[in-house]
Specification:
By secondary structure, the protein is of the alpha/beta class. It is about 40% helix and about 20% strand. It has a 7-stranded mixed beta sheet with strand order 3-2-1-4-5-7-6, with helices on both faces. The longest helix has 13 residues.
Length: about 220
């Protein structure tokens, strides 16, 4: 449904593709196969990048995060650095009733997610925020997720501190577990490094798992 929400959101915001009002306002769960075909064809003709919605939920690290969240069933989530939606999209599918706020520093990614929300995904809020300086109040979210994010952030200590500050119950993190050739990865965060960072930020207990070249950690706050 996310793809169809995106097409409708872009249409509402820009007027292209031009869609019938009934198709714009019908609840997503009531879209027929004919409705979906019309939406998809209109999106493709308008040049929208619908390949963004191909299934990413089978990645082991994403499945690990989804499995953890099913175990704690969050009341609300802050997803930091949602990026292309590799985790966020499967989350929205698996937890259609859980409010999730996506925070990203890139305008075009925030606009992309806002279009999805505008198109009918009412549990999604997208904001342009930097986790190192965000103004959310303490304990604003039940769970904070930071998946494939910390290795990109120069001020990693501030990011960890704010994540712990904002979470009522848990922070979930995944990072690469070995060096790679991605120039945007400016930290290699080991188990010991993460333990030190999160303990100093006030986390009470941490649990680690290895997942196909990645380290997955949950911190109880």
């Amino acid at each position: 449904m996310l793809k169809f929400a995106y097409i409708r959101g872009v249409s509402k915001r820009t007027g292209s593709p031009l869609l019938d009002e009934a198709l714009l306002t019908k609840p997503l769960c009531e879209l027929t196969e004919s409705d979906k075909s019309i939406l998809e064809n209109a999106g493709r003709e308008a040049g929208l990048k619908l390949y963004r919605f191909k299934n990413m939920g089978e990645l082991p690290r994403v499945q690990k995060a989804i499995g953890f969240l099913k175990g704690v069933w969050p009341e609300s989530v802050l997803d930091v650095g949602s990026g292309r939606g590799v985790f966020l999209f499967p989350f929205l599918t698996e937890f259609p009733c859980v409010p999730v706020t996506s925070a990203d520093i890139l305008d075009y990614r925030v606009e992309f997610l806002k279009d999805i929300a505008l198109g009918g995904i009412k549990t999604l809020t997208a904001v342009r925020e930097n986790i190192c300086s965000c103004a959310f109040q303490d304990k604003s979210f039940d769970v904070v997720t930071m998946l494939e994010v910390l290795e990109h952030i120069p001020e990693v200590e501030k990011a960890v501190f704010n994540a712990v500050r904002l979470a009522k119950r848990y922070v979930a993190v995944s990072v690469p577990s070995k060096e790679d050739d991605n120039p945007e990865h400016i930290h290699l965060l080991t188990k010991d490094t993460l333990t030190d960072l999160f303990t100093r930020a006030g986390a009470k207990s941490l649990h680690f798992d290895g997942v196909n070249g990645h380290l997955f950690m949950t911190a109880r706050v």
